[in-house]
Amino acid sequence: MDWRWVAAAGAGLAAMLGGSMVLRQPSAPAQAGLPVRPPASRTVVDAELPDRLPEASARTREDKRFDRYDKDRDGQVTRDEYLAQRRKAFAKLDRDGDGHLSFDEWAVKATTKFAAADRDRSNAMDRAEFATTAVKRKPARTMHCPPASDDAVKPTEES
């Protein structure tokens, strides 16, 4: 067999391999290192999805907290309703039931807090009075990424 035939066969194989690689490349340039995915076709499930997300509930955190305390749903938190939550917390603290943490000593803070919030001295708190008893939360920590330095983005002159 002549070496020209071998060279021609090798060139033909290289041309076919190169042609198949050109046909497989995506039409849009891909970012380096990211896999190329074909565009997803719409399915029946996608067509049934709404265009807008539903609005969040208008109930605030404070409304939900008030409703947890207002057991009889009369729109007011009585002293007994307010202290009921404290009794549950006390029972959790006094796990062995030995009584070293007496309720009277522990409830002084809750009773004082209730008395301070009950501004009209009606022995019940309305929503505005109840809102003053909320635990003051620390603001959520947010993570801020430093901006990318120009050195990391620009290619070096050597490359």
TrEMBL record:
Alphabetized InterPro entries for the sequence: EF-hand-dom_pair (IPR011992), EF_Hand_1_Ca_BS (IPR018247), EF_hand_dom (IPR002048)
Organism taxonomic ancestry: Bacteria, Pseudomonadati, Pseudomonadota, Alphaproteobacteria, Sphingomonadales
Organism for this UniProt entry: Sphingomonas abaci
Protein's name according to its UniProt entry: EF-hand domain-containing protein
CDD domains registered for this protein in UniProt: EFh
Annotated EF-hand domain residues: 81-116
Region of interest (Disordered), ranges: 53-77, 135-159
GO molecular function: calcium ion binding
Pfam families according to UniProt: EF-hand_5
